[in-house]
Design a protein that fits this description.
Helix content is 34%, strand content 24%. The chain is built from 10 helices and 13 strands. It is an alpha/beta fold. The chain binds adenosine monophosphate.
Length: 323
């Protein structure tokens, strides 16, 4: 599929047809996959190139969704067979709880990503949740060490592919995991200690995803916690994590700001982007955002999560003391 100018950001992951049921409704064979959510989210901020596989049944109108966001699809391979399918159901009591009903790998089973010459020079790389050996293979195809490599994974690989996962974790800059996975991977029940153990392995930041409770960023010597943007209606949480990662990486790739404050703003923008995805099924909301939607929510989010820090010349009240 068509070749374009070099992109700032590369994503390798899944493109899927998802069937989901949530307390707010259901969708069958709706457009999904980690690379899809990530690419759309990051495309608002920077140029993105996708590496993924789809089947013969993948609709042209779905390729057009990428194109509408000016995503480079030259690495979107069409293979013989059916597109990857995933289905899940969300709990009626707690929409953060989901059960996977079915995973059909289809063309994804033989996926062996091959980067184009141009893609091998991309400065920012996101390795979405796929087999850790494939993630390593992608990294090894890069011509020079990218400026920043981030990786997402899941309990399935921690349980079944710990050695391969450890190998790639040692080589990335940023690791995304949910809190259970951080504990499981580090074999340490305390979250902060677990994240620090992972940092000692190589990454310079661990982004701990905590669903509706937000995100904790652990870096060497610093901690940052960010709540999730509070919504009064969550329609479909599918893809929130990948959309978050898209906002995070899109910000870093666009600004080049890899300072601790840059990472914090990237975390906030990721949270804002994730909040749009969960407001609707599939790409329904993520597909239609305007610059003003993102800016307005980012400002509102900054307001509601800003505390009242103590200035240097202030102190907290103390019983019996005048200041
Ligand atoms: P999230 O809700 O952020 O965990 O992402 C859900 C997306 O990941 C869905 O769109 C699925 O199609 C995709 N997905 C689910 N299971 C897998 C898997 N084993 N490998 C790759 N992608 C998957």
């Amino acid at each position: 599929m068509a070749q374009k100018n070099a992109s700032e950001l590369l994503v390798v992951g899944s493109v899927a047809y998802d069937s989901v049921k949530t307390p707010e409704g259901s969708r069958r064979d709706a457009l999904g996959g980690s690379a899809m959510y990530f690419a759309l989210s990051s495309s608002y901020f920077t140029s993105v190139s996708v590496v993924a596989v789809v089947g013969e049944d993948f609709q042209q109108r779905d390729v057009d969704v990428f194109k509408a966001h000016d995503v480079d699809v030259s690495g979107l391979v069409r293979a013989k067979g059916k597109t990857f399918r995933w289905s899940g159901v969300y709990s009626t009591e707690d929409v953060n709880q989901r059960e996977t009903l079915d995973t059909q790998l289809n063309v994804f089973a033989d996926f062996s990503p091959t980067l184009t010459k141009q893609q091998r020079r991309t400065p920012y790389v996101f390795l979405a949740n796929i087999h850790p050996a494939l993630q390593l293979d992608v990294l090894q195809q890069m011509e020079a060490r990218p400026r920043l490599v981030a990786l997402d994974t899941m309990n399935f690989w921690i349980e079944g592919q710990r050695d391969a996962l450890t190998k790639i974790v040692k080589r990335v800059d940023v690791l995304f995991m949910d809190e259970g996975e951080v504990r499981q991977f580090a074999r340490e029940p305390n979250l902060v200690r677990a994240a620090r153990k992972i940092i000692a392995m190589g990454p310079r930041a661990v982004v701990v995803k905590r669903g509706e409770h937000g995100v904790m960023l652990v870096q060497n010597g610093s901690l940052f916690v960010q709540p999730a943007y509070p919504l009064d209606r969550v329609v479909d949480p599918t893809g929130a994590g990948d959309t978050f990662a898209g906002g995070f990486m899109g910000y870093l790739a666009s600004t080049g700001d890899r300072s601790p404050l840059g990472f914090r703003r990237a975390i906030m923008l990721g949270s804002v982007m994730g909040s749009f995805t969960v407001e609707a099924f599939s790409m329904e909301r993520l597909h239609t955002l305007k610059r003003n939607d993102i800016d307005t929510r980012f400002r509102a989010f900054s307001d509601i999560s800003r505390g009242s820090p103590l200035r240097k010349d202030q102190s907290l009240p103390w019983r019996g003391s005048k200041n």
